[in-house]
Amino acid sequence: MVALTAMLVLAAFFTQTSNTIPKTAYLKLIDVWYLVLICQVFAIIVSLVYVENLRLRYKFNTVEISILRPFESKNLHFHKANRFCKVFFPVITAAILITFLIAGTVP
């Protein structure tokens, strides 16, 4: 729900910003910024759905889970996907921010 709300807010900001700045024939950096953020939030929503689907699929198929190592069960693939997303999206966000900082400062 938070990701959907964030996407709605980004779309509203994008529309408001597009209406207040002068019209040009080319893409401005602020347009690209909003489009990249909207695409990133969409990717986050898709990954949340994927991880939740994995969790629910294997919830009913678990036979036994080791008490000492619960994350080593073959049926808990969603933990790996969740861990990947926890690392991937912050790294991508940092890369996007650095790219736009560099693009914004170069004349």
UniProtKB/TrEMBL annotation:
One GO BP on record is:
monoatomic ion transport
What InterPro entries does this protein map onto? Neuro-gated_channel_TM_sf, Neuro_actylchol_rec
The residues that cross the membrane are 32-51, 87-106
Residues annotated as signal peptide: 1-19
UniProt KW Signal keyword: yes
- Highest rank taxon of the organism: Eukaryota
Keyword tags:
Membrane, Signal, Transmembrane, Transmembrane helix
What's in the GO CC field?
Answer: membrane
Key word Ion transport present in the record?
Answer: no
Q: What is this protein called?
A: Neurotransmitter-gated ion-channel transmembrane domain-containing protein
